[in-house]
Write a structure and sequence with these properties.
324 residues; alpha+beta; 5 helices; elongated; actin filament binding; coiled coil; Actin-crosslinking
Length: 324
């Protein structure tokens, strides 16, 4: 660990003594404090070893049961929510159909009663011919059609509806996203309000406490804190600025990205400008123009958003969803 011996100021003792320089931290230590420093390093090594063993235990759990992984649980949650939405919509449609079908049956019954009276009169008067019989027969067929295929009721499927958001599993290639040669597709931002959802935990990005705190991906639903406006800075380069709807201020990567993202700026400069890179259908990454680094939901979304990554890994992928 020590590389040289001189009489210099010990970083711990703050007096000039015979010292050795630590090759790791480049500080000068006297012989007594050099041993203390070595002991500190041993403690740190033990701590890393303990963390290593704990991580091995967690990894073994995943090896034995991949279903407990957070990504699998996200798919399970999406499945449950989608089924609930479908069941709710199906119940609503059944109730509407019940109402409309009953109204249709009631009208058919009225028309059938009229035909019943007409038949009785014909039989009573014994006054009818082929034309009358054909007319009665056609009316009866029409009532039959109205019973099975009402002309005023239909079932329509909307193929363009975002009733259920499609999910996909996306994995990065070995090549860094930040260094790929890509053909950029100009993205459209036609809606007034958007929400941003992190793919790593399925949570929405929120400007907590009305924008006074840094952005973090931990909201389960979209409310006022989770709504953002998009300002196009350069359409060809897909450069945008994000404005939090809750306080009408722009999101900034303060101090060239060294601090977490926060919505506290009233104007747009390079700290407030982000490049949107589409990596899959409805999946994008955000790269800060201030430091050319990718925004990520640190610690799997448990910590604030910050532009500090050279590459966009799983923590750095988001869905920008129009809010209707």
């Amino acid at each position: 660990m020590a590389t040289s011996t001189n009489k210099l100021l010990c970083v711990k003792f703050e007096k000039v003594r015979a010292t050795s320089k630590c090759a790791g931290c480049s500080h000068d230590y006297c012989y007594d404090h050099l041993q203390d420093h070595r002991q500190e390093l041993n403690v740190q090594l033990d701590h890393i070893g303990n963390n290593h063993n704990r991580f091995r235990q967690r990894l073994n759990k995943y090896i034995n049961n991949s279903q407990i992984h957070a990504f699998t649980q996200q798919v399970d949650q999406w499945e449950k929510e989608s089924i609930n939405k479908i069941q709710q919509k199906a119940n609503e449609c059944r109730e509407l159909l019940k109402k409309y079908i009953n109204e249709n049956i009631h009208q058919i019954e009225i028309n059938l009663n009229k035909q019943t009276d007409q038949l009785r009169n014909i039989v009573k008067e014994n006054d009818f011919n082929e034309i009358d019989l054909n007319e009665l027969n056609e009316k009866l067929k029409e009532l039959e059609r109205q019973l099975h295929q009402p002309s005023n009721i239909s079932i329509q499927k909307n193929s363009t509806s975002s009733f259920i958001n499609e999910i996909t599993v996306v994995t990065s290639s070995d090549e860094s996203i930040g260094h790929k040669t890509e053909t950029k597709r100009s993205l459209n931002w036609d809606h007034k309000i958007y929400s941003i959802r992190s793919t790593v935990n399925g949570k929405f990005v929120t400007a907590e406490h009305g924008g006074e705190r840094p952005l973090i991906a931990r909201a389960d639903k979209v409310d006022s804190w989770e709504k953002f406006k998009i300002k196009i800075v350069n359409k060809e380069l897909n450069h945008i600025a994000l404005k939090a709807s809750v306080n009408d201020k722009y999101v900034t990567a303060e101090h060239s990205g060294y601090r977490p993202l926060i919505a506290n700026q009233v104007s747009i400069d390079k700290w407030e400008t982000f490049e949107v890179i589409e990596v899959a259908h409805n999946i994008v990454t955000l790269r800060s123009i201030a430091n050319n680094r990718f925004v990520c939901a640190e610690n799997g979304g448990r910590d604030s958003l910050i532009a500090n990554r050279d590459t966009a890994d799983l923590w750095g992928k988001f869905e920008i969803l129009p809010f209707y």
